[in-house]
Amino acid sequence: MKWFLLLVGLALIAGAGAGLVASIDLLTTEIGAIYATCSAVAAAAGLIVLALAGVTHRIDALRAALLRGEGSPRRAPAEADLAPPIPSPVPLENADESAVEPPPIPAPDSDLESEIEAEAAPPLAADAAPIEPPAAPTTLVGRYSSGGENYSIFSDGSIEAETDRGAFRFASMSEFKAYIASKRANA
Hints:
Elements: H1 2-26, H2 30-68, H3 97-100, H4 110-120, E1 140-146, E2 149-154, E3 159-163, E4 166-170, H5 173-186
Antiparallel strand pairs: 1-2, 2-3, 3-4
Helix pairs in contact: 1-2
């Protein structure tokens, strides 16, 4: 297998060299650029196949060495390499019964719980509204011009139109389309 890979790699590199020689005179034309590109790809593929041949050769040599027994000698693990022995568990039949059972958990005082709940959550006023997070600042997404009118689209989906009638701001694309439709119907 390694000899086959070696021959294929060398053939690819030889073909790449021939392609590069053929592309020298034609390099300014399209076909010359194609020759040069294909030659570079073939040269890279040839180098990869040669590397695979080298790896195959090393694997074959390693396998042969292992079959002959020339590999690194395996040594028996020394006492220092072994992990220390794990101590055996002590049987519980001789242990004290009170040490095994966990202490009982005291029951919570109901008056204490109601005081904590009252302090944790103050009552809301009837007219208090929930606090809304601040709105993110709108940024300009793009500007467009059509029919002599300028349009600006923002990150929150709103649209600003500058027309001959003045500047208009629309909250969404559907409002803007409705405005355009009414404008066309009135025209």
